Amino acid sequence: MSQPEKAYSISVENLTKKFDDFVAVDKITFNVKKGEIFGFLGANGAGKTTAMRMLIGVLEPTSGKGEVAGFDIFKNSRKLKKHIGYMSQKFSLYDDLTAKENMRFFGGIYGLTNKEIRNRTKELLTHFGMEHIEKERVSSLPLGWKQKLAFCTALMHKPDVVFLDEPTSGVDPSIRRQFWEMIYETAEGGVTVLVTTHNMDEAEYCHRISMMVAGKMITVDTPQNLKDKYKLETMGEVFLHLARGYEKEHAITAS
Ligand SMILES: Nc1ncnc2c1ncn2[C@@H]1O[C@H](COP(=O)(O)OP(=O)(O)OP(=O)(O)O)[C@@H](O)[C@H]1O
């Protein structure tokens, strides 16, 4: 399915979500280029998942605009879903199916033919060095391998943009590194990646990151620029500096 080439893979303007009077996402504005790894950083409850759910077309925005892979997230959410992959925080692969059977299942959901499913499964498992788990039941796999497999299922239909919601939460550091290598290879192939995390080490791996505090996007930049700007060593320090600064300012404004 062809679509006009757009300047950005993700384009968001003043996107807002309210739950009754509570503003979970407050007028966020940002753009993400094709093949870019864009991180959503923020503490628990900052609004990352809510923002992501609007971008994948499953949660209706209260106001504002958003376009993903050339499709309006509200008006074209059905078409949009064919062009994106999504790995949720609690992705449920089928525990009693093997790795390959899970890929076949998700390939079917994305509307691939049997031949496409066979080829794509082989291609992804080989590319990411995962052939040996092909016949393993998911229930017998360690969490990190389940997450790597879940990432593969999200790539079955060759999406333009893939959304990963805390994909390495609870995963041990060596598998986490392997997972990030998968993310890099995917982005190098031209797929845009939006990843949420509250792990500050992972922020260093993103091309650009945004920081969310209380529903607001308080900054968007490269990790290096942010560290240089505030003369700090790590993204953890940058996050604390910005979050505390925002909270202080907010308290002063509110008093
Ligand atoms: N359906 C809903 N109804 C009411 N409030 C909601 C709903 N979904 C989310 N919220 C609230 O919106 C705020 C943002 O939640 P969200 O899950 O987007 O945060 P998050 O940054 O993804 O946090 P976490 O890292 O814990 O997943 C929270 O205060 C949450 O309780």
UniProtKB/TrEMBL annotation:
Iron found in the keyword field: no
Gene Ontology MF terms: ATP binding
InterPro entries: AAA+_ATPase, ABC_transporter-like_ATP-bd, P-loop_NTPase
Keywords from the UniProt entry: ATP-binding, Nucleotide-binding
A Pfam family: ABC_tran
SMART domains to which the protein is assigned, alphabetical: AAA (SM00382)
Keyword Flavoprotein appears in the UniProt entry: no
Domain ABC transporter span(s) in chain numbering: 10-239
PANTHER family (UniProt xref): ABC TRANSPORTER G FAMILY MEMBER 20 ISOFORM X1, ATP-BINDING CASSETTE, SUB-FAMILY H, MEMBER 1
Protein name (Swiss-Prot/TrEMBL): ABC transporter ATP-binding protein
